[in-house]
Amino acid sequence: MKEKVQHGNLKNNFMFKKCLLFTLTFFAFFSCADKKHEIKQEQHEIKQEQKDTTKVFGCMDTTMFNYNPLANTQPANVCIPKFNSDSAYYYIEKQVSFGPRFLSSVGWKNCALWLEKKLNSYCSNVIVQTAPTTTYDGKTHTLKNIIASFNPNKKNRVVLFAHWDTRHIADYDTKNKKDPILGANDGGSGVAVLIELARQFSLQPPNIGIDIVLFDAEDYGQPEKSEYPKMENSWCLGSQYWSKNPHKKNYTAKYGILLDMVGAKNATFRFEEISRTYAKHILNKVWKKGHQLGFEKYFIFENTGPIVDDHLYVNMILKTIPTIDIIEYDPATITNFNKHWHTHNDNMQNVNRETLNAVGQTLLDVIYNE
Ligand SMILES: [Zn+2]
User: Separation of 75 CA from ligand 1 center, angstroms?
Assistant: First the structure.
């Protein structure tokens, strides 16, 4: 989108092949395999949770223990959970198994139910904020922001954001541009990291309050070439609504972190301009932590231009929560997004556990040091 570009104005040249066949096969596979896989994954999660619980008790007994090699930079008694990238990967697979998840679609309805149920299994304070909304194409919907609050009475809070909807069209693909995308990375990855964090918070509650806010309708923005009249602020409808109507009266938090497209192999994250303008100290804090943990190839200390994303509205409308965006920046593409951005190739083949781990572990270290 223009200078404040979320959605650049030049086409990428990615070659797209046999997408429909792939998509159909993909859905067929999941509809058969899903139940079995889910059971397998639930077993895996239970096993992992048992392992994690043991580790938590170990930490409690050994107060100076910290797996972080740079423990001297942290207060004593801090035990930082280990992010599980297998779980995060599975949470993307699960979202993708519902199919595209744009406003009012079948996948969107089913995924909302799963997200609510999943967060409820880790947190006793989950609400679904609903609001009527109209998209640029004149369609009316009811958007759903899904919110989980850990330690709801604590004043000292951090808020974590991601968008759970996916793009309703593949406007940057070369084929089947009018068909919706799976959004494994764009949508799925940020949500998956936050669900894995929720699981960790349930095993070892952090000292501070945490809100996880999954925004709806980030990606239903008006395309560059549109037959409809120009609509301002057509992107980020869920975050615009939440920023005007936070889920709690007088809600505030010390800072906010938005995750968007955090799942691609070798993704790099930089100092995006809106984040820099509103919350440079948080960028520094998170990037430094990433470097301390050995994730310097992901967190680059380099400035980029502004990106229209949910953090823009949180910063501009709500104003009281300085919020950064951890979003992939690819200097090699014309759009500066991942080459699969808004194409049918934003699927599981391009999801990478190491990247999910770099982001998830960095967030855990930031949060448990608050
Ligand atoms: Zn998008």
Answer: 38
The whole-model pTM stands at 0.84
User: Domain for residue 97, yes or no?
Assistant: yes
Q: Under 8 Å CB-to-CB from 85, ≥6 apart: which residues?
A: 196, 353, 354, 356, 357, 360
pLDDT for residue 47? 54
Ligand 1 centroid from CA 28, angstroms: 25
Reading the block at residue 31, the tokens are: 């509809």
Specify if 355 maps to a domain: yes
Cα separation, 330 vs 337, in Å, equals 5
Distance 365 CA to ligand 1 centre (A): 27
Percent of the chain at pLDDT > 90 equals 79
Q: How far is the CA of 68 from the centre of ligand 1 (A)?
A: 34
- CATH number for the domain spanning 177: value is 3.40.630.10
Please state, in angstroms and rounded to a whole number, the distance separating the CA atoms of residues 112 and 174: 30
Interval between CA 136 and ligand 1 midpoint (Å): 16
Surface-to-core class of residue 20, CB atoms within 10 Å of its CB (0-12 exposed, 13-18 middle, 19+ buried): exposed
